[in-house]
Please model this.
Amino acid sequence: MSKIDLDPTAMDRTRVYKIVAGSVLPRPIGLISTVSVDGRNNVAPFSWFNALSSDPPYVCVSIGTHMGDGRPKDTLKNIIDTGEFVVNIVSEDIVRAQDMCAREYPADIDEFAVSGLTPSASRMVAAPAVLESRVNFECRLFKTIPLPRSTYTLVLGEIVFMRVHEEVLEESGRINRAKLLPVGRLAGNAYCRTTDAFTLDHDAFETHERLSTGD
Model:
């Protein structure tokens, strides 16, 4: 197998982005809603997002600066100022609305109004949730970590309250993926569905592992 060696420190930032974002696939989308200290709602999607743990539940999101002038994004400013945010899971029916929220608007523009999404009062935090999202995670800020030599800041938050649509949550406690219909981010304007899933035969896998290790 022939591979090309690449040094990210010697490459253009755009080229590095294309390789990383085009290789780490698919990426879950965190539609993050916040409110400013003076009461302005904000909602924006981030694909540098994931869950970190379940006991207690933590999530992370990496937030960059505005591409044009390098100023902090409203989402990050609101999280730092208030210590709160809500992660809203993106399903197929709101994927176009979340894309509208991804554009760079002035701070006085309410993305809820622009996208047609509905702000819904949260239980434990001041930031509104997205009513149309089937899963809402209300979060309190644990820590922000400015990444060295980067325009990004890593945000770590603890989930303090959860709201799940009753049709999505099964009696077993599991999330029904077929009813959640989550969407993943690929590269550029490309997204993916989770309808083409497959399972692995654990018994066959364990047999292979025993044979390959000599157990």
